[in-house]
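Help!! Second protein's tokens look totally different from the first
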Amino acid sequence: SSSVGDVLSEQSVKELPMVNRNALDLVKVMSGVIMADDTIFNANASSFAGVSASGVNIQRDGVMVNDVRYPAGINAATRVNPDLVGEFRMILAPVDAEAGRGNAQIQILTKSGTNKYHGNVVWNVQNSAIDPNTWEQNRTRSAPPWRNLHQYSASIGGPIIKNKTFFFVLFDGQVNKIRTDMNLLTLTPCAAKGVYRFYDNW
């Protein structure tokens, strides 16, 4: 194959730190990838070996799982929990015909059970009480927006019939609460009645 890419094993996916518990964040550690600050609304600024990230195809067990709402490229319809990943493979360029569409491709192989029972329980908490303030908020002496994020998952896998049939089950939950200050326009009493004047006293 003439394709160039990287493969991360299940063990590497477990050991690499991920703030948001999303396996797609691992793309940032792969060679040949340049990520923009805002990947949702500015996908063209991110590139895979010089090609826009908006043309990246994401596959999970051979099925396309791209979120097509925004052309972000690195955004699946559901969050890919790292406990679900058995292998993480990224093909930069060129993508072989057997891999399907896309200028580049992210292939995720999910876990399956083994002859031994293995399980995992994770509770990830992110809270604005320990977040730093931004420069602009320090300048205006305002507090950061309040947020409280809880991500929790439990998984277990093992044999049903040894050496023949296996199972793997994962439960993944998220509770995300956010509160932000909004500066809204308030109509003058005259404008609230539907009378709009562009010059005083006219």
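Here's the second one for comparison:
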Amino acid sequence: MAAEVSSVEVRDITIKLHRAGAGQKLLFLHGAGGLAQWLPFFDDLAEGYELLVPEHPGFGASDDAAWIRNVPDMAMFYLELAEALGIDQAHLVGHSLGGWIAAEMLVRDRARFESLTLLAPAGIRVEGVLSGDNFIWGPEERIRNLFHDQAFAEQLLGLELTEEQRNVQLRNLFAATKLGWQPRWYDPDLERWLHRIKLPSLVVWGADDKLLPREYGALWRERLPDSRLITIDQCGHIPHVEKRELVSREVREFLKGVA
């Protein structure tokens, strides 16, 4: 399915917005690696929904903004984007960094959304359980540690990137570093406010996630007031890529069941 790409300006920031499908709106927030391509998973979501996939400020082809200093600032930007786009009664899905942003949005204002789906989200920390550190991993190690099935890593490592694509990767890494460097990939204040997300929530985690271990999923399940956790065997940090068919099926069934 071909996505329509447009530019949207909110306050002083112009971002790229990818859109496909029709029906109830579904907002997907990507992870720290950016939006390198339109994923087959997006096609699955766009069957029955109007899927909106923005590139975060500072990532890809979107403008950066000095006033976005952290993830809570990014959450406020997306609440303003939702207002500008007239988003109402929509579903919200976020992966990794995008899941963290989604949670920060909903503890502030959940009025425009009906459900939350989190795919291996960052944002909280489990005491005594060490997470991975993708800021100190080498380039190859960073890719390999995202997947259980190394065939996915080999495919990415075998790509011949253009200079422009390499520049985008560096830009994404810089933006991710600004948001996730200190403290590493979590907000010390977020966990105690997750009870405010009084929406049906689905949490999806890879059992072999080397960046954010599976124990983190259990804590999200515990803190979100109306949530279900799915842990997927033989799966790393990007479940919607590595186990696309399973994740697509579970997410779509969950969304259909939201009253």
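Reply: Different proteins will give different token patterns, so don't panic. The mean pLDDT is 97.
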